[in-house]
Amino acid sequence: MTRPDIQPKASHFIDGAAIEDTDGTPIVCTYAATGEELARLHAATPAIVDRALAAADRAQAEWAALQPVERGRVLRRAADILRERNHGLSVIETLDTGKPLQETLVADATSGADALEYFGGLAASLGGEHIPLGGDWAYTVREPLGVCTGIGAWNYPMQIACWKAAPALACGNTMVFKPSEATPLSALKLAEILVEAGAPAGVFNVVQGYGEVGAQLIGDDRVAKVSLTGSVPTGRKVYTAAAEGMKHVTMELGGKSPMLVFDDADIDKAVSGAILGNFYSSGQICSNGTRVFVQRKALEPFLDRLRERLSGVVMGDPLDEETNFGPLVNESQMEKVLGFIQAGRDEGARLVAGGARVDRPGYYVEPTVFADVTDDMTIAREEIFGPVLSVLSFDTEEEAIRRANATPYGLAAGVFTNDLARGHRVAAAFRAGTTFINHYNVTPVEMPFGAVKMSGFGRENGKAAIEHYSQVKSVYVGMGDVEAPF
Ligand SMILES: NC(=O)c1ccc[n+]([C@@H]2O[C@H](COP(=O)([O-])OP(=O)(O)OC[C@H]3O[C@@H](n4cnc5c(N)ncnc54)[C@H](O)[C@@H]3O)[C@@H](O)[C@H]2O)c1
């Protein structure tokens, strides 16, 4: 496939227009499959951030005053445009992230379109309630929060931008979105598309930058809410800064999620779940089930089947639609993952598959499987964010649940079993925000997605997201005399 020119017109999108300011720190986009430079942008200077916030602040009242069905229509039109342009947008996402086109065609702009369609549909139904109080009565109004800030990670840039923008805009908020500095491109496309779909200038703005640009956004008094997708250490900083200004937060952070495979499970299904939960997007997914606990009797059949299935890996140019396994996003992520693999070897885990950098240009690491992993090993405790699957064994249900929950993280958890009651019992016992029975890592827009414990706070997707982008105002209505003590 001929590679298109993906250099954007300008680094930022503010008040309905592409804006450049070359005074900011350069941001270089490289193709993870080759290391070549593809585009060059600039981080926002404080003046650019101020301009974006001013635009969002100015646009918010007008946007919130629209009839909700009109706001919804804009979002649904944007969803249609995303779908019409899915191929081109997927190519950009592949070049920016290194993820195979086979994946980006079905999981990035299309997932973003689902969010815009879903929340566009909900916009007109977001009312309050009537509360009878004898003679008097009260009613509630669901109001927007104001200007929201979205800060993204690099693994699903378009999806993250849409999962934040869609509920925020549906509720009548405006947004200033800062993509990850590693993947700045697709959010600019979303901003253009929203304007094309009829969003007034200033409703959705994009500023590029590193952490300090995010920090400036959070520290600004005009911002009412911060939604971050990122790591736990960044989440701590962002939550603390938001607390200073008493701002609303959504924290979609990292994890070390467990997947339990009981010996009564369908082993093929469980292996498929483990592949989806460890190797899709080369393992760069927050909710990955990287601690795969397999009941002792199923252990060797599970490992045998997993080894066989790994022969189906097609590693290659991510733009080739046959490729189903791509590189990591950049060199530093690759080095980090290789460091974890070394730790696994050093601490005595048994290497069953992979374990090395691939001898080709770009940042490819083999799909790696360790067996005989114990709970105290580094690879069983820390988020790797790469294609490294750890297999641990267990004997009883009680033991598996206890060990699965023994982590500061709480994003996701999965169970494979053919025992219906056990499936629900285990899901109920998981201390995680998003759980799966006999599947893994599926995130339909209708289902709330989010975390507990250190993995975060708030929910994206589903009706639950509305609670995190709106607030309830109560109005008491006195219908009779006002009695006072004097
Ligand atoms: N729970 C989820 O939905 C979800 C989804 C995808 C990724 N993640 C997590 O994201 C992480 C990988 O992404 P990453 O490496 O881009 O994360 P990161 O924490 O390094 O960066 C995330 C974003 O925060 C910004 N940032 C950094 N410091 C900041 C500060 N002080 N103030 C404001 N913003 C700041 C970055 O520029 C970036 O845009 C993993 O931990 C992964 O689990 C979570």
Short synopsis of the structure:
Helices cover 37% and strands 21% of the residues. With 486 residues, it is α/β, with parallel strands linked by helices.
Keywords:
486 residues; alpha/beta; Aldehyde Dehydrogenase, Chain A, domain 1; Aldehyde Dehydrogenase, Chain A, domain 2; 2 domains; seven-stranded mixed beta sheet; 37% helix; binds nicotinamide-adenine-dinucleotide; oxidation
Can you characterise this structure?
- This protein has 486 residues and is α/β, with parallel strands linked by helices.
- It folds into 2 domains: 12-254 and 451-473, 3-Layer(aba) Sandwich (Aldehyde Dehydrogenase, Chain A, domain 1), CATH 3.40.605; 258-437, Aldehyde Dehydrogenase, Chain A, domain 2.
- Helix content is 37%, strand content 21%.
- The protein has 16 helices and 22 strands.
- β3 and β4 (37-42) form a beta hairpin.
- The longest helix is centred in the first third of the chain and has 20 residues, at 46-65.
- The relative contact order is 0.14.
- The chain binds nicotinamide-adenine-dinucleotide.
- Residues 151-155, 178, 180-181, 210-211, 214-215, 218, 229-231, 234, 237-238, 252-255, 286, 383, 385, 411, 451, 456 line the site of nicotinamide-adenine-dinucleotide.
Poorly predicted regions are none
Main sheet: strands, sense, barrel: 7 strands, mixed
Q: State the CATH topology of the largest domain.
A: Aldehyde Dehydrogenase, Chain A, domain 1
Distance between the termini: 83 Å
* Largest sheet, spatial ordering of strands: 14-15-16-13-12-17-18
How would you sum up the global shape?
A: globular
Radius of gyration, in angstroms, nearest whole number: 23 Å
H/I helix tally: 16
CATH class of the largest domain, named Alpha Beta
Output the CATH homologous superfamily of the largest domain: Aldehyde Dehydrogenase, Chain A, domain 1
Mean of pLDDT? 98
CATH architecture classification name of the largest domain: 3-Layer(aba) Sandwich
Give the distinct bound molecules.
nicotinamide-adenine-dinucleotide
Overall strand count: 22
Helix content: 25-40%
**Per DSSP, what share of the residues sits in E-state strands of 2 or more residues?**
15-25%
What structural class do the secondary elements suggest?
alpha/beta
Domain tally: 2
